[in-house]
Amino acid sequence: MTVNVAEAKANLSKLIDMACHGEKIVIAKNNHPMVDMVIHKPGGKRKLGLLSGKLTIPEDFCKGDEQVNEMFYGHGR
Question: What is the predicted pLDDT for the residue at 4?
């Protein structure tokens, strides 16, 4: 089913219900398809620590670099 934006605004609740029941709904602007209305699928939980033990951070990581500071802040700062 393809509906234009104005029709989608007027019938949003009905379209949401239809999409939840498996109906494919395309919202169009000036009869050009723009977006598909689909059921929300929650993403998986993020897994923290994937790089644990796989990278090292140098001791001077937070130390400023004079050349970089000069590019950002100008000479003499």
Answer: 96
